[in-house]
Recover the amino acids of this structure.
């Protein structure tokens, strides 16, 4: 399906956040300001830009991207902008210079508490499809951060299904009943436990998985492999033992209502060995024979306290590349 550039159906109404002065004006007489806790941005959570508002900012961004016109997007003067973890000016470079189409059957994640949002979509550059991920931060009605992940088919050995055939699982839109929701901290801990499990994957599980847990990687349902089906079964085999490190893990977008965490990070494959045995004795061989790193944007759906769905997009980057978002002044938490 094509993403309209007419404007009418694309850009949702965006409500700008209140300024601090407006919020203070509503305080009752004699009401004292609450001190913020150490490490917390503010003692008062600003929810004036709700889920629809944040998704509206994402759609406005997509409108500007497709038109290759930054003036259509409310960027902050000091916006931090990256494509595949490279800091660059907004517009006129990378995807912004080459895009010609965006899908409209996309997956949105909104974090009202932190004023952040994420998107998983498909784009075309000169007619060639690529997987696309976006993470943004919004403050005072302006986009202050825009992290773009573009996964192009470069012929390297990695999952890469036909992007036009990809469908996002309806489970991502399901709202978790209030009494069954996990806290923001618990959701992050469950996602981090997944990375702990696949790092040096030896068969030990450090996080819970649903029996029907499914993982979609660059459009391929990798948990449907003939050798072992399901997230837990594959990880108990030690299939991913080549993952030397999973570092600079950031959990920047969390939707407690839907039980979703969007994370980013780097998988380092040191490739000090080019073959290894799974826990059932089957020999595995690495496809690449040299050290390599992949960067990813990965979403986790947690249901009943266990990982239910995983959707990831990833691509190769220089070995041991670092994230500009994980350095001081970056976004997220490690």
């Amino acid at each position: 399906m094509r993403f309209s550039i007419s404007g009418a159906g694309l850009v949702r109404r965006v409500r700008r956040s209140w300024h601090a002065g407006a919020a203070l004006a509503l305080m009752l007489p004699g009401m004292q300001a609450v001190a913020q806790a150490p490490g917390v941005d503010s003692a008062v959570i600003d929810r004036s830009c709700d889920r629809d508002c944040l998704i509206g900012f994402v759609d406005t961004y997509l409108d500007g991207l497709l038109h290759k016109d930054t003036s259509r997007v409310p960027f902050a003067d000091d916006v931090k902008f990256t494509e595949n973890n490279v800091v660059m000016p907004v517009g006129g470079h990378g995807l912004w210079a080459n895009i010609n189409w965006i899908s409209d059957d996309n997956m949105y994640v909104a974090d009202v508490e932190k004023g952040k949002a994420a998107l998983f979509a498909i784009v075309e550059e000169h007619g060639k499809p690529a997987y696309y991920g976006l993470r943004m931060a919004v403050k005072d009605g302006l986009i202050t951060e825009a992290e773009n992940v573009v996964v192009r088919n470069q012929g390297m050995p990695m999952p890469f299904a036909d992007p036009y055939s990809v469908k996002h699982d309806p489970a991502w839109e399901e709202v978790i009943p209030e009494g069954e929701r996990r806290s923001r901290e618990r959701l992050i801990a469950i996602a981090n436990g997944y990375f702990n499990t696949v790092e040096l994957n030896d068969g030990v599980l450090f996080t819970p998985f649903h029996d029907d847990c499914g993982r979609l990687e660059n459009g391929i349902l990798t948990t449907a492999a003939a050798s072992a089906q399901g997230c837990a079964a594959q990880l108990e085999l030690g299939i991913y033992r080549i993952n030397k490190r999973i570092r600079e893990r950031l959990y920047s977008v969390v939707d407690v209502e839907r039980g979703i965490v969007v994370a980013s990070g780097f998988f380092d494959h040191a490739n000090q060995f080019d073959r290894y045995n799974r826990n059932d004795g089957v020999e595995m061989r690495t496809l690449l024979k040299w050290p390599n790193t992949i960067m990813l944007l990965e979403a986790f759906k947690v249901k009943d306290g266990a990982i239910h769905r995983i959707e990831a997009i990833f691509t190769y980057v220089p070995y041991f590349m670092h994230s500009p978002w994980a350095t001081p002044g970056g976004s997220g938490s490690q």
Observations:
- The first strand starts at residue 75 and ends at 83.
- The radius of gyration is 20 Å.
- The mean pLDDT is 87.
